[in-house]
Design goal:
Elements: H1 2-12, E1 14-18, H2 23-35, E2 40-44, H3 50-60, E3 65-69, H4 74-82, E4 88-89, H5 95-104, E5 108-109, E6 111-112, H6 115-123, E7 128-131, H7 138-145, E8 153-156, H8 165-169, E9 177-179, H9 185-189, H10 193-206
Helix pairs in contact: 2-3, 2-10
The structure holds 3-phosphoglyceric acid (3PG).
Subunit structure: Homotrimer.
Catalytic activity: 2-dehydro-3-deoxy-6-phospho-D-gluconate = D-glyceraldehyde 3-phosphate + pyruvate
Family: Belongs to the KHG/KDPG aldolase family.
């Protein structure tokens, strides 16, 4: 199942990290992302309404592979699963969340930013990891990690924009990048979903993998 998620992410190239604040916005955002050619979305579990927003996406947009991000504990992972999350992303390596997701056969992409954390993940059999915060270390760190961990693939997130996206996607050990830049809260709050669609399209047009 992890292989399938990695395949979808690789095809997607970019994964919008989104924080809609209610069901109406989630619905409009789901449509805007699909219109913009996006294949995935990561809903950050940072607000009270995040679970219902994720449910709107998983229930109404089967073509968008939607999951939960910023999962900090097992309770949130359980909630994400009940909302139909197709994957779980964590900011750091959290063994409890990882164990829960593995038990539930729910694909999990734990955050790492050191070799030590890469090895914690490898011990759990995971070789597709979020590299966070990506801009701390950047592409130089990913190149260095590709030496000892040549069989590990990463999803850099944190500071990715249209300006540096291609420098990450050019790396063999990068499947996709996560970015809130595609659908920032500022545009969601302004109701400017057309701008979000345009941003997604522009990003896909200019990105190369
Ligand atoms: C995350 O939530 O994973 C990151 O904070 C997103 O980072 P960005 O806002 O720099 O894209």
């Amino acid at each position: 199942m992890m292989e399938r998620i990695q395949e979808i992410f690789r095809k997607a190239r970019v994964v919008p990290v989104i924080s809609p604040e209610g069901q109406a916005d989630a619905r409009k955002l789901g449509q805007a992302l699909i219109d913009g050619g996006m294949l995935c979305a990561e809903v950050t579990f940072r607000s009270q309404t995040a679970p219902e927003c994720l449910s709107v996406l998983t229930g109404n947009f089967p073509g968008l592979c939607s999951g939960a991000g910023t999962i900090l504990n097992v309770e949130q992972a359980r909630l994400a699963k009940s909302c139909g999350a197709r994957f779980v992303v964590t900011p750091a390596f959290n063994a409890r969340v990882v164990d829960y997701c593995l038990e539930q056969e729910l694909p999990v992409i734990p955050g790492i930013c050191t070799p030590y954390e890469v090895e914690l993940a490898l011990r759990k059999g995971l070789d597709f990891l979020k590299f966070f915060p990506a801009q701390v270390g950047g592409t130089a760190m990913l190149k260095a990690l590709s030496g000892p961990y040549r069989f590990v693939t990463f999803m850099p997130t944190g500071g990715i924009t249209v300006d540096n996206l291609n420098s990450y996607l050019a790396l063999e050990n990068v499947a996709a990048c996560g970015a809130s830049w595609l659908a920032p809260s500022k545009l969601i709050e302004a109701g400017d979903f057309d701008a979000i669609t345009a941003r997604c399209r522009q990003t896909l047009e200019t990105s190369e993998k």
